[in-house]
Amino acid sequence: MRHWQKKMGRTVSSKTRNNRFLTEVQLAVFREFGVPVRYNRGQKRKDLLPPGKRCEFCSEPATRAAYRIPYTKGVLKHHLRPDFLNQSWNLIATCSDHITKAKWSENRIERYVAKLHERAEHQR
Ligand SMILES: [Zn+2]
Q1: Residue 25 Cα, ligand 1 centroid: separation in angstroms?
Q2: Which of the ends of the chain has fewer CB neighbours closer than 10 A, N or C?
Q3: Separation of CA 65 and ligand 1 centre (Å)
Q4: Mapped to the 3 state alphabet, what secondary structure does 101-118 carry?
Q5: Gap from CA of 62 to ligand 1 centroid (Å)
């Protein structure tokens, strides 16, 4: 690999890693064609729900990967990247009764997103 290619590759990947928000073009595509599939169910579920994993709210066996910031809303309303929303910070292991308990209130989501915007401004 040539030096400039390495340099470009690094620039692109670190940009993606730090950016939690969709570009206008990406958002327009999702609005027109739909939001991408939530997560690779097989692998992600296995990581988040290993055998013996318990619900975060009761001690029942965990069967769900619940979102703090709901996936579709996070993408379409808050313009967050799907890959960012699918990271472990946003997913909680729950039983089927407590799946909605994982969800943050609208207020909390808005505060969190505002903080991300602030951080993104600093990085520019
Ligand atoms: Zn539970």
Answers
A1: 39
A2: C
A3: 12
A4: CCCCCHHHHHHHHHHHHH
A5: 7
